[in-house]
Amino acid sequence: MIKIIVDCFGGDHSPEANVDGAIASLGKFEDLHLILSGDEAIIRRCLEGKQWDASRVEILHAPQVIGCDEKPTDVIRLKRDSSMIKAIRLLRDDDSVAAMVSTGSTGALVAGALTRIGRLQGVIRPAFCPILPAMNGGIVGICDSGANVEVTPDHLRQFAIMASLYMENVYGVSRPRVALLNVGKEAEKGDELRQTAYKLLQETSEINFVGNMESRDLLSGSYDVVVCDGFSGNVLIKSTEGAALELLKKLKKDIYSRFIYKVGAALMSRMFKEEKEFMNYQNYGGSVLLGTSKVVVKGHGSSKAVAVEKCIEQAYRMQVSALSAKIEEVICKYEHYEQ
What we know:
By secondary structure, this protein is α/β, with parallel strands linked by helices. It is about 45% helix and about 15% strand.
């Protein structure tokens, strides 16, 4: 039995989307057991009229809710009865609980995970690794995307190892192609941090390092993992998503500008729907926090039920694949100089 906690009171569409996504995930995995964290009375109202196996669902009563503008340190100290903090404590204290999924405050989740759950042996700093669709029909993971604004070459090597193992074990990508985000593809490009990291990645036999990547090539399908500091990674993802959304808006506006375009669009409506689904982040789950001693998945704040369901699937597959043990095994082979 794989037990996963779902924070039901984080995100723009909570608790309905969180509860609906959780119940839908039960149909995918027969050995999945869920713990729904939040106000019990409200969660039970969300469950009314739905078909669900009561033997596979528990409710962890947590009446407090965390606001998106609250400081992470204040949340941990003052919101001990919140759905997120109670879930984190249970994840830490109960060995039978394997993972946690939340669409709530990123800062509070990271702070809680680091201070209450801790890191895997040998991991310097955990890192977020979200997934984006690539133009060849595949996917690409970006590590880090916001957990670590300032990094060292050792951090970047660990991000590469963890993300590579994640893509291989959870998504079945054979020998993931790992690239370092940089201002040019040449080995000598970038600042001292990037140049030193490049050499470390070249020396790391457990990864398939293919060199530097420029940001414009993120969705090209030429890479499976992109390694970067959290600041650059966050900007990279949001810029890419924003450009795609604005392009779709302009396309829609142009289609409605002339009758002949409307006719053409009507004939291509099925293709447009498929492309929209392909680019919809809701279909790709959340950003996993690699390197923590237990599995933590952070969903987008605007996640709907399908995205929550995908997040739970990510957490389940990470646990079943024994990803944490594999990360520890490889990370501990390499000496690093800070904790």
